[in-house]
From TrEMBL:
Lineage start: Eukaryota, Viridiplantae, Streptophyta, Embryophyta, Tracheophyta
Keyword RNA-binding on entry: no
Keywords: ATP-binding, Chaperone, Coiled coil, Nucleotide-binding, Repeat, Transit peptide
Sequence ranges assigned to domain Clp R in this UniProt record: 81-224
One GO cellular component term noted in the UniProt record for this chain: mitochondrion
Biased composition regions of type Low complexity, renumbered to the chain: 1-15
Coiled-coil portions: 490-611
Protein name: Clp R domain-containing protein
Length: 967
């Protein structure tokens, strides 16, 4: 065609566009869009070279379906969105944009390549990556070619389709028919570039990729799948997109070593070797190591330590979240999952799926009448076409899997229990090297033992070994922070230098003699400090560099060990020997030298850093997690138990026999002589009011569990009605408050280490005792939600006022020794308890402890304790309180009442001491830094009568403090 003819055709096309823009020459309606994703992309195509891509009317948005596609005189068919996949069509449309951005009117093959390469997660990029080509280099070569093409300056009549562009699409259609596909896809277009003499062939030649390599890369990605819909690219390499190859991770040494769990791994292997229903599901509490079992299986497959049916298999972990993410349209999720299952089936048993949190497949993707993942998996699971390992917790298995009996029967359960403390220590020892390498520190064996023991004892609501591993990890991270941060000693010197520098600037302007002398001294001190700073910085940097060097050598050693394992697996014995007896020995020598240098430096006394995690570091982390003081965690159990009576007597006055009985019960439990499936101790305190029953419970809680808040107090007078029993374990399902749980069970579930005090047990309804029977005998209660709450780490105390009058009468009518009187009282009170409580309840109590009324000596000691508490409160107001022995005796006599115990003492002190001090503080008689003396004055009432004692409060001068002995 001549140039003049081309010009005439171009003018005719522009005239047609103008007529349409002003409303003339109406065009037929466009064809319906090929898919929902198409509505954002369209283009105006014309015949080959010399034909215009007619622009849309100004009132329309670009790339909308406002015009039918034009026909090409040389193209075999019409260029319409319906013949392309979504990603391929986006590339075609993007080519027009690429030409416009490059200020080029003719849309050619290079623009199409650029558009395909710029697609996010595009298939073209994946194909080039699979062929071993860097996508950045392909894009750079394409941009370089585009930059050499002629540009158009100023307004143009619109983009023009180039002959190479049309040729690429025609060849892509041929490849579509060759593959037996229904739509032109990106891989067809890429193969068409191999026949493009203008751009494609030179590009592939520069990239050193031939047609065969490209075909192999395409085959590796799409496999045997056919393109039967307009979004096939999302289904190519579905396992690679939505799964993680655990055997490959094991081969590269990315998985932590799995210690123990041999029985569980063996059971999984046994189930996987079955003909049908060969699908194990690992169930257990969170943190016990369910996923680790699957990782252990992957490591055994890599080592070849599995039976023949599992040799050289791949274990792929399926990411259900990735499968669901971005699945917007109906059926998209099912399409992704079916693509995954198709790849697994096509592997002929070479792939084993692992689905962590397998309960998520129930209901996954079930929207708008679609099938969920569970129903899609059922047929394949039952026939043995798909070997699948699942992992989930007991609660979620019961909630989701067990409800679907058809799904449950296709899985075989493998229970994964919590390991013992000894097993946890073994697991930590196996993981120690990995954590040392990651953090660049050393971890002592004592730290591992402390992590297992302390986490088991003090961290509740979580399971071993997870909580012990977390302790070690956090302690190592804390030490790593200390190593990389500036040492405290150096930081203090830096701050001192800054302070001196500021003072120096201030003194420079002063001319008096004192300021000059101070400035001279300051400069000398500053020089000395800077020298010290320099020395400390050098020591710190040197020590830190040694630690960094040691860590880098260890990392290199780990990498070499992995290479040795890989060489031995591939039977490359010469390479393995070269690494083992050459590189590895050299690294070990370097490591030994670096460690010796570090030891020498540390022994020189210049060391500023620690490099080893100890049991003290573990105790500090536990203290931060639980609030238990570090000193209590480190104090040995034996020392604490030997001092138990002394600690209890600091707050509980008198009651020697009761305190001794409690201490013996606790020691018996701690020595391992009591039943481990029952509470630590179950005690019944009986005696008059105000003699220390509740106080002993509080003191015991503080001693055993380091805080008085560990006392869970249940006032049984609130449970006098039959229906109130449900408040202990929670309301039944369907009742208001069902989700809240019980007052007793929830409190113990949150704080398993506690003292549970049932106050005034005789006032409770008889049905309450039915619950207590199970608690006292088995050490557990099942709440309304089916959760089992353990009381094996609790001390159960029940108080009762039964026999109070009997105790008082016995003491009045006998002059025997305390021990003899105690035995008489105990027999009588226990007999009275038998008449009140049922035999099966009393039979489950470890010890009955009878509290005696307090005598005057014990009351006086209680007065001193109460006065000391007042003194501590006044000290916060900067007022000092002192008292005389006479005042103590006087207050004791006023507050003594055998029937009411020690409670009247508190009221007397409140009325006669606290009220009077408060009044005189407000009047201004007592001020800050004053000392107030509580004393007794005697005043005669009448001749022949004993003088009456009166409590007096007076402010003392410093000279009068010497005779007061109770500081």
């Amino acid at each position: 065609m001549s140039r003049a003819a081309v010009t005439r055709l171009s003018r005719a096309a522009r005239a047609a566009a103008r007529r349409h823009a002003v409303g003339r020459d109406p065009l037929p309606p466009p064809p319906p869009p090929a898919g929902g994703a198409r509505r954002a992309a369209s283009a105006w195509f014309a015949p080959p070279m010399g034909r215009l891509l007619v622009p849309p009317p100004p009132s329309r948005r670009l790339f909308q379906y406002t015009q039918p596609a034009r026909y090409s005189t040389s193209s075999s068919s019409q260029i319409t969105p319906g013949e392309f996949t979504e990603m391929a069509w986006e590339g075609v449309v993007g080519a027009v944009d690429a030409a416009r951005m490059s200020k080029q009117q003719v849309v050619e093959a290079e623009h199409l390549m650029k558009a395909l390469l710029e697609q996010k997660d595009g298939l073209a990029r994946r194909i080039f990556s699979k062929a071993g080509i860097d996508n950045t280099s392909v894009l750079q070569a394409t941009d370089e070619f585009i930059s050499k093409q002629p540009k158009v300056i100023g307004d143009t009549s619109g983009p023009i389709i180039g002959s190479s562009f049309v040729s690429i699409l025609d060849n892509a259609r041929k490849y579509k028919r060759e593959y037996g596909d229904e739509f032109v896809s990106v891989e067809h277009i890429l193969r068409a570039f191999t026949a493009d003499k203008r751009f494609g062939q030179q590009l592939f030649k520069d990239l050193k990729i031939g047609e065969n390599e490209l075909k192999e890369a395409i085959l590796a990605i799409r496999g045997s799948q056919r393109v039967t819909d307009q979004n096939p690219e999302g289904k190519f390499q579905a396992l690679e997109k939505y799964g993680i190859d655990m055997t490959e991770l094991a081969r590269r040494g990315k998985l932590d070593p799995v210690i123990g769990r041999d029985d569980e791994v063996r059971r999984c292997i046994q189930i996987l070797c079955r003909r049908t229903k060969n699908n194990p599901v690992i169930i257990g509490e969170p943190g016990v190591g369910k996923t680790a079992i699957a990782e252990g299986l992957a490591q055994r497959i890599v080592r070849g330590d599995v039976p023949e049916p599992l040799q050289n298999r791949r274990l792929i972990s399926l990411d259900m979240g990735a499968l669901l993410a971005g699945a917007k349209f109906h059926g998209e999720f099912e399409g992704r999952l079916k693509a995954v299952l198709k790849e697994v089936t096509a592997s002929n048993g070479q792939i084993i799926l692992f689905i962590d949190e397998i309960h998520t497949i129930v209901g996954a993707g079930a929207t708008g009448g679609a099938m969920d993942a569970g129903n899609l998996l059922k047929p394949m699971l039952g026939r043995g076409e798909l070997r699948c390992i699942g992992a989930t917790t007991l609660d979620e298995y019961r909630k989701y899997i067990e409800k679907d009996a058809a799904l449950e029967r296709r899985f075989q359960q493998v229970y994964c229990g919590e390991p013992a403390v000894e097993d946890t220590i073994s697991i930590l020892r196996g993981l120690r090297e990995r954590y040392e390498l990651h953090h660049g520190v050393k971890i002592s064996d004592g730290a591992l033992v402390a992590a297992a023991v302390l986490s088991d004892r003090y961290i509740t609501g979580r399971f071993l070994p997870d909580k012990a591993i977390d302790l070690v990890d956090e302690a190592a991270a804390k030490l790593k922070m200390e190593i990389t941060s500036k040492p405290i000693e150096l930081d203090e010197v830096d701050r001192e230098i800054i302070r001196f520098e500021m003072e120096k600037l201030s003194l420079k302007n002063d001319t008096d003699k004192a300021s000059k002398e101070r400035l001279s001294k300051l400069e000398a001190d500053l020089e000395s400090l800077k020298q010290k700073q320099k020395n400390l910085s050098e020591h710190w940097e040197y020590e830190k560099s040694l630690m960094t060097r040691i860590r880098s050598i260890k990392e290199e050693t780990d990498r070499v060990n992995l290479e040795i394992e890989a060489a031995e697996r591939e039977y490359d014995l010469s390479r393995a020997a070269e690494l083992k007896y050459g590189t590895l020995l050299s690294l070990q020598k370097q490591l030994e030298e670096a460690e010796n240098k570090l030891v020498e430096f540390q022994q020189s006394g210049k060391s500023m850093l620690r490099e080893e995690v100890t049991d003290v570091d573990i105790a500090e982390i536990v203290s931060k997690w639980t609030g238990i003081p570090v000193s209590n965690l480190q104090q040995s159990e034996r020392e604490k138990l030997l001092l138990l009576e002394d600690v209890l007597h600091k707050r509980v006055i008198g009651q020697d026999i009761a305190v001794k009985s409690v201490a013996n019960a606790i020691r018996r439990s701690r020595a391992g002589l009591s039943d481990p499936n029952r509470p630590i101790a179950s005690l019944m305190f009986m005696g008059p009011t105000g003699v220390g029953k509740t106080e002993l419970g509080k003191t015991l809680a503080e001693f055993l569990f380091n805080t008085e808040n560990a006392l869970i107090r249940i006032d049984m007078s609130e449970y006098m009605e039959k229906h109130a029993v449900s408040r202990l374990v929670g309301a039944p399902p369907g009742y208001i408050g069902y989700e809240e749980g019980g007052q007793l069970t929830e409190a113990v579930r949150r704080r398993p280490y506690s003292v549970v005090l049932f106050d005034e047990i005789e006032k409770a309804h008889q049905d309450v005792f039915n619950i207590l029977l199970q608690l006292l005998d088995d050490g557990r209660i099942t709440d309304s939600q089916g959760r089992t709450v353990s009381f094996t780490n609790c001390v159960i105390i029940m108080t009762s006022n039964i026999g109070s009058s009997l105790i008082l009468d016995t003491l009045r009518n006998t002059s025997d020794s305390k021990e003899a009187v105690y035995e008489i009282m105990k027999k009588q009170v226990v007999e009275m308890a038998r008449q009140t409580f049922r035999p099966e309840f009393l039979n489950r109590i470890d010890e009955y402890i009878v509290f005696q009324p307090l005598d005057t000596t014990e009351i006086n000691r209680i007065v001193e304790i109460q006065l000391n508490r007042v003194k501590n409160r006044l000290r916060q107001q900067k007022i000092h309180l002192q008292y005389t022995p006479e005042a103590v005796e006087h207050l004791g006599s006023l507050g003594f009442d055998p029937n009411y115990g020690a409670r009247p003492v508190k009221r007397v002190i409140q009325q006669m001491v606290e009220n009077e001090i408060a009044l005189r503080v407000l009047k201004g008689d007592f001020k800050e830094d004053d000392t107030v003396l509580v004393d007794v004055s005697s005043m005669a009432i009448a001749k022949g009568l004993a003088p009456q004692k009166k409590l007096v409060l007076q402010r003392l001068e410093n000279a009068n403090l010497e005779f007061v002995a109770n500081d």
